[in-house]
Specification:
Layout (H helix, E strand, L loop, with lengths): L6 H6 L8 H5 L5 H12 L12 H16 L3 E2 L6 E11 L5 E6 L2 E5 L5 E3 L7 E9 L5 E2 L4 E2 L10 E5 L8 H8 L1 H11 L3 E5 L9 H8 L3 E4 L12 E5 L15 H9 L7 E11 L1 E15 L10 E7 L4 E6 L2 E4 L2 H20 L7 E7 L7 H8 L8 E7 L10 E5 L6 H11 L3 E3 L14 H5 L5 E6 L6 H13 L14 H20 L31
Helix pairs in contact: 3-9, 3-14, 9-14, 11-14
């Protein structure tokens, strides 16, 4: 468990709207320390893990609103800095729910939390029983001539699919079709009633026990059904790697053999499983409210100021959960107080520069990212300015300053003309731009930039760079195993490179300015798959020619 860093921080928790003078009076000794001061407050135990809709999250939103106002960022909504939204939480009642395989007239009960996890995102209270069919990766990508469902009769069935995808399909495209909104769309059209998700041990990010703990937190959906695009199945199950062979008893292939084929990048067979899935669901639901924090730094150019560079970072984390070594508060220091703190520092640097950016800079600190990108989806669906006036989204989520900032991975760099600004800024600052080292992690669709991409806005998602097999990758893998969505993602973790974080903030500020000051707005590359989401923009802003 962590402690609040100062009396000023403790005083803040009495109310999110009290004076921050005591905090501001404590002059940090470096830019990195100033960044860390925000993290000390946002990830203290008093914030209780900033769960969506919680009191701790509201306090964090109040703190960020106050900081933005002090940095010259203006509210742009009738509700000030806060963009409220109506949600609903859903929770599986384990004691009243059950999962079993029915094979050869025999019923094999599966233990929730040991064999499987049930998702509260799919289905309603009641019973589902259906035959099972293994469908490989469960991907349908017409643009690449790939379809795991071709020739299969899925009507009334539960599909069993394996995590991953073929290596010959570009990472961002594969990531898009791996998103549940896309997968469920295909499954619904084929008549499937549910899915079973098999994990590949090679791609695991979290220990099973921590995944189970996370699954016991409520799922959150929009109260407005029209905004929910990843539901519609009657049942969804995630399996424990250690017990996944149970699903393949009597089948023509074992779970281990299928994983070996996937890891060798060989085609996966499709076949009926000699079993049926029987599930009893009991789901509790209740209303919930949360909010984004949104503000704008107006641009200096009278024409270009009507266009916006959007900076995003999610403010929420996962709250209070199952105890680990006696600690129940999941503080979320790196995930994602670090990104929120970085955006606050970018705002500070921009305010202090003598010449303000030509385009306006819009700051969006989102809620519900951990619940399925809810806040960013709401913002992009209910934008405070026309979505076509947003020229780019630059997103931060766990940018991972655990080693010196000498290289960057910018997910999405090959999809739009943002690559030009990225390359130029990186070259000037002596930072290498690296390719995505692990495309199978599907990071291009796993954070808030994806909500903007689906609305046609070019985007980049930044991480400290590393290469496969490097010491940095080993450090990152260790962090995932020990700290990701764990109470130990707190102020005590080591190492955190504050100087590296300060260098990254300088880099992100320069990126923001490069996009904001460019005469032309970014656009999708002609060969980008994601160009299809672009919306017809209003007449582009024209900058008057300079007088001779």
């Amino acid at each position: 468990m962590t402690r609040a860093s100062s009396l000023a921080a403790l005083a803040l928790f009495v109310s999110p709207f009290i004076s921050l003078g005591a905090f501001a009076a404590e002059a940090p000794v470096s830019e990195g320390d100033r960044w860390w001061k925000h993290i000390e407050i946002l990830s203290s135990d008093a914030m209780e893990g900033r769960d969506t809709g919680s009191k701790g999250y509201e306090t964090a939103a109040g703190y960020v609103s106050k900081e933005l106002a002090a940095l010259g960022v203006k509210p742009m909504l009738k509700t000030g800095f806060l963009q409220p939204m109506a949600l609903r939480s859903r929770r599986i009642v384990e004691a009243k729910s059950s999962v079993a395989l029915v094979r050869g007239g025999q019923t094999l009960p599966l233990v929730q939390g040991e064999d499987v996890m049930l998702s509260a995102r799919q289905g309603d209270s009641g019973t589902v029983e259906a035959p099972l069919v293994f469908v490989g990766y469960g991907l349908s990508i017409p643009e690449k001539g790939y379809d795991d469902f071709a020739g299969l009769d899925l009507k009334g069935k539960v599909v069993v699919l394996l995590q991953g995808g073929p290596s010959n399909i570009p990472g961002p495209v594969k990531s898009h079709f791996s998103a549940w909104s896309e997968r469920v769309k295909v499954l619904k059209s084929a008549g499937a009633v549910g899915f079973v998700y098999l994990q590949n041990p090679k791609l695991l990010e979290l220990p099973w026990e921590r995944m189970v703990a996370a699954s016991r937190n409520p799922t959150v959906l929009f109260a407005d059904p029209s905004l929910n695009d990843s539901g519609g199945m009657k049942v969804a199950v995630v399996t424990n790697v250690a017990h996944s062979q149970k699903w393949f008893e009597g089948a023509p292939h074992t779970y281990e053999a299928l994983v070996a084929l996937a890891n060798a990048d060989q085609p996966l067979p499709k076949f009926d499983l000699p079993a049926r899935l029987k599930v009893k669901l009991a789901i509790e639901s209740k209303p919930l409210k949360s909010m984004n924090v949104v503000g704008v730094m107006p641009g200096s150019d009278p024409v270009l100021a009507k266009e916006y560079v959007v900076l995003t970072a999610h403010l929420d984390h996962v709250g209070i959960g199952d105890p680990v070594k006696g600690d129940r508060i999941y503080n979320g220091a790196m995930d994602n107080a670090s990104g929120v703190a970085a955006l606050l520092e970018v705002a500070r640097v921009l305010r202090e520069q003598p010449q303000k950016p030509k385009r306006s800079v819009l700051f969006a600190l989102t809620t519900g990212e951990e619940k399925g990108l809810l806040g960013s989806k709401y913002f992009a669906s209910r934008p405070p300015v026309p979505i076509t006036s947003m020229v780019a989204d630059l997103n931060l989520d766990m940018f991972m300053p655990h080693w010196p900032f000498t290289s960057v991975v910018a997910h999405g760099k090959d999809e739009s003309t943002l690559l030009a600004a990225l390359s130029d800024v990186a070259a000037k600052q002596g930072v290498r731009v690296l390719a995505d080292p692990e495309p199978d992690r599907n990071l291009f669709v796993r954070s808030d930039q994806y909500s903007f991409i689906r609305e046609g806005v070019p985007a980049l998602f930044f991480k400290f760079g590393y290469t496969p097999g490097s010491e940095e990758q080993k450090l990152f893998k260790q962090w995932l195993a020990e700290h990701y969505h764990a109470p130990s993602d707190d102020l005590s973790q080591q190492p955190v490179d504050r100087e590296g974080a300060a260098r990254f903030i300088t880099f992100l500020t320069a990126m923001t300015r490069a996009v904001a000051d460019a005469p032309d707005r970014p656009r999708w590359n002609d060969d980008s798959f994601f160009r299809r989401f672009a919306k017809p923009a209003a007449e582009p802003a024209k900058v008057p020619a300079a007088k001779p």
